[in-house]
């Protein structure tokens, strides 16, 4: 099959590799139709990382079932599916209570099977494959992973009616967080330095936006909340910006409020000085959100699929660019230069 492999310098090369085979009776083989470029993928762009060299990556994908194991009865060849790529080892105490998003072996397992979106075929256990309604396109379905990350953070933050919510970052995660907060009845203000991203936030329902390349984020949030501060601040930028954005969040949240960190950290120690005495005396909670799993008895990816199918989430508006797999380096370059290109969600047509 055709696949995009990571190179020594952190880019991609297109190569022919062995197609995955079904390893057990409960597994499914699918042809990937569309994959997305996540902020996590972008943090590895053009970085020399020996552990990723010659590997297939990517974890936002939808496609069509090609083959099923003999124990699979709820899926058949030809079914259109979205594929969940959060997959633990299935045997640890966290997987046993459906908190597989914090499984110690999460990345070892997911990258061996389902987290290989930038290739023509992917294989995984049938429980990770969700049938798509006919009216949900592959492109829209590729955003379900993004929305599921947002829903997990939304559940941690316990967003409620009439709350004042501030969001740092208007990429796919921030815009997904915005839509869920509005669904819950909150008033939402969104900050980002990219004007096109703020315009999209307004289109998707933001009550106010902040250009934090020149505006004072905390002052604008205080004005938006009548001087009290936000009930909840979602940090959705992550990566290299975290030493700036996390302190921003702490200055804009109210006493007794919550900060939910959705944006990812880079590996290793990250030093971020914070006013810990003020945070403690104000009983401000800092909650760290990792991927998604279950909420009570419901799989969060299944919940998102239901919301999308009912028209309660808008994925289509967030798709700004499309590329074929052969142009994956151009796609990543476009996503990386969003200030110039206006990119939000970049879709890759795999097959």
From TrEMBL:
Sorted alphabetically, which Pfam families does this protein's record hold? ADH_N (PF08240), ADH_zinc_N (PF00107)
Under InterPro entries, the record lists: ADH-like_C, ADH-like_N, ADH_Zn_CS, ER, GroES-like_sf, NAD(P)-bd_dom_sf, Zn_alcohol_dh
Q: Which cofactor does it need?
A: Zn(2+)
Q: What are the UniProt keywords, alphabetically?
A: Metal-binding, Oxidoreductase, Zinc
Q: Does the keyword Oxidoreductase apply?
A: yes
**What sequence ranges are listed for the domain Enoyl reductase (ER)?**
10-346
Looking up SUPFAM superfamilies in the UniProt record yields: GroES-like (SSF50129), NAD(P)-binding Rossmann-fold domains (SSF51735)
GO molecular function of the protein, one example? oxidoreductase activity, acting on the CH-OH group of donors, NAD or NADP as acceptor
Specify whether Zinc is a keyword of the entry.
yes
According to its UniProt record, which protein family does this protein belong to?
A: Belongs to the zinc-containing alcohol dehydrogenase family.
Q: Which PANTHER family match?
A: L-THREONINE 3-DEHYDROGENASE (PTHR43401)
Protein name, per record: Zinc-binding dehydrogenase
